[in-house]
């Protein structure tokens, strides 16, 4: 049965094809982002694994001692430096990854295919997240710690009537760093995730209408390296400055975004890690 094209993506990484293949497979637990919805059971997962060779398994590991794990896929093509493919074990999606040399390193091209009548229950997510996550890791791995980066035990969610518009504005105006695919339509419910240090900032669609008579009760605080430069960027991007830079044991300012949400930005101390 012929599989129909479902979606595709690509990223260029600054390493040769054999290194890119090795990093993709051997270091999957380092480049896969440990976000709240990035596993099938994020409450139990301890690692992500790729077993080498045709017949090898892609695993979401729940217990290292007992080997308890969810099989995510079974490898069908294993050609180091050239091609990797697997059939999803959680649905009917087939993933094909090509490693092609370029002048600057390697073009990693992914494609997801779905047999006629097949079902996609998340198997295609590899195509959506790999360019961002894998590309970042390849660029950082020479200096980054060789340990999975765990999120802190706090995430903040903010709701917008127009989430896709808000995400683009937050990126451009406040310089927030996105992880993974971003919503493309304001009319569709979805999940967008920013990374602030080791915390997640989640953008969701507002359920209901904005009301002018509701007081501000929640204001996210974000620490930045250069508060003055950040304020200048926010003003240039159209943010309304609710309270200018002030000092009270800390330096901070508060701004309102395009839908009126308030944000406080404070100066990070030199010992705070990004």
Briefly, what is this?
It contains five helices and 15 strands. With 274 residues, it is an alpha+beta fold. Strand 13 and strand 14 form a beta hairpin.
What does this structure look like?
The chain folds into two domains: 3-140, START domain (Alpha-D-Glucose-1,6-Bisphosphate, Chain A, domain 4, 2-Layer Sandwich), CATH 3.30.530.20; 155-267, Roll (2,3-Dihydroxybiphenyl 1,2-Dioxygenase, domain 1). It has helices at residues 17-26, 28-31, 125-140, 163-174, 227-236; strands spanning 3-13, 47-50, 57-63, 68-79, 83-88, 94-102, 105-115, 155-160, 177-178, 192-196, 199-205, 221-224, 240-247, 251-256, 262-267. It contains five helices and 15 strands. Helix content is 19%, strand content 38%. The radius of gyration is 21 Å and the shape is globular.
Instruction: Please trace the helix and strand order, writing H or E for each element.
Output: EHHEEEEEEHEHEEEEHEEE
* Overall CATH architecture of the largest domain: 2-Layer Sandwich
Please report which band the strand proportion falls in: under 5%, 5-15%, 15-25%, 25-35%, 35-45% or over 45%: 35-45%
CATH topology of the largest domain: Alpha-D-Glucose-1,6-Bisphosphate, Chain A, domain 4
Average per-residue pLDDT, rounded, comes to 91
> Strand count, sense and closure of the main sheet?
7 strands, antiparallel
How many separate domains? 2
The percent range for helix content is: 10-25%
Poorly predicted ranges: none
């Amino acid at each position: 049965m012929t599989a129909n094209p479902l979606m595709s993506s690509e990223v260029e990484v600054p390493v040769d094809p054999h290194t890119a293949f090795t990093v993709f497979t051997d270091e999957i637990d380092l480049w896969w982002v440990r976000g709240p919805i990035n596993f099938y059971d994020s409450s139990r997962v301890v690692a992500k694994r790729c077993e080498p060779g045709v017949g090898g398994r892609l695993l979401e590991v729940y217990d290292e001692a007992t080997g308890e794990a969810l099989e995510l896929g079974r490898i069908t093509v294993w050609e180091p430096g050239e091609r990797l493919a697997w059939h999803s074990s959680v649905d009917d999606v087939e993933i094909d990854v090509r490693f092609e040399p370029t002048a600057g390193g390697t073009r990693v091209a992914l494609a997801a295919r779905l047999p006629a009548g097949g079902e996609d229950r998340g198997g295609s997510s590899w195509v959506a997240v790999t360019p961002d996550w894998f590309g970042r890791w390849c660029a950082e791995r020479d200096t980054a710690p060789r340990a999975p980066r765990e999120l802190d035990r706090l995430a903040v969610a903010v709701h917008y009537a127009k989430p896709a518009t808000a995400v683009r504005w937050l990126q451009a105006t406040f310089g927030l760093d996105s992880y993974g695919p971003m919503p493309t339509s304001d009319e569709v419910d979805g999940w967008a995730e920013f990374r602030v240090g080791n915390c997640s900032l989640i953008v969701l669609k507002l359920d209901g209408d904005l009301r002018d008579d509701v007081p501000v009760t929640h204001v996210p605080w974000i620490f930045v390296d250069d508060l003055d430069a950040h304020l200048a960027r926010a003003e240039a991007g159209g943010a309304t400055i609710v309270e200018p830079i002030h000092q009270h044991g800390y330096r901070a300012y508060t701004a309102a975004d395009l839908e009126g949400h308030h944000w406080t930005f404070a100066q990070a101390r030199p010992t705070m890690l990004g």
